């Protein structure tokens, strides 16, 4: 299938120039427009009418709702969204709910009124998403919906547990995330499946509760972790792991000598802390780019939920348990 990228490469111009030349020719120099049109004709490229209609909407912008833009996880997704929007000649309005689930439905509705489509990267505003989807194009990240993209958490959990079991760990604690988080529920379901499938290994997973997906949330989990019999901990995300490791160190608990830690997301934080975190990663910018493409170039053949692969990055926060 010929894409706008192929036309841009053949014509020797940017993707944004191709989009302008084909959707708003008056904005492009005649010679450039003719070069783009010739390349498109030679390749048999047919512009996506749905994307053109979105660009011709009342704002020429798409919206992105995130729960915490300071979290590098959502910042990376936002970068991916912005890259694709720029290629399509669209602006991006980013709204940060600051981890306030009660504010998210109202923010989402307001964002939908001000843009031509919305990407919802918050794991909680499900009902609001369904209501807005009836009037505005919506793509959701890390939850289910008519058009959704998510990390393959089942695969990520499997890799994390397999790594810890191979090291000799049999009691693993999980420091969970927000109660209404779809991604947290996926992690818990996958952990239960690991216990079921590894019955012969004597694996036990201890669910330690619900914690804020922040550094403070990780620090607040230290009592539950210290009171458990776990030799390894899996945390909801890197940010939680940073707080937990810091609180453990303050108590004289050494990672990984006394306790192994595996986190999720593999943001830049994972490599900055000491010890560097073993973390389950997905390409977050690719996740954002895919979500934006689903919004501006929807296809009838698209699956309701597209899963992106995860990969375990082994670093210094995991080791064999103490004898």
UniProtKB/TrEMBL annotation:
It comes from the Bacteria. Pfam families: LacI, Peripla_BP_3. One of its GO terms (molecular function) is DNA-binding transcription factor activity. Keywords: DNA-binding, Transcription, Transcription regulation. CDD domains: HTH_LacI (cd01392), PBP1_LacI_sugar_binding-like (cd06267). Residues 2-56 form the HTH lacI-type domain. InterPro entries: HTH_LacI, LacI/GalR-like_sensor, Lambda_DNA-bd_dom_sf, Peripla_BP_I. This is LacI family transcriptional regulator. The lineage of its organism: Bacteria, Bacillati, Actinomycetota, Actinomycetes, Micrococcales.
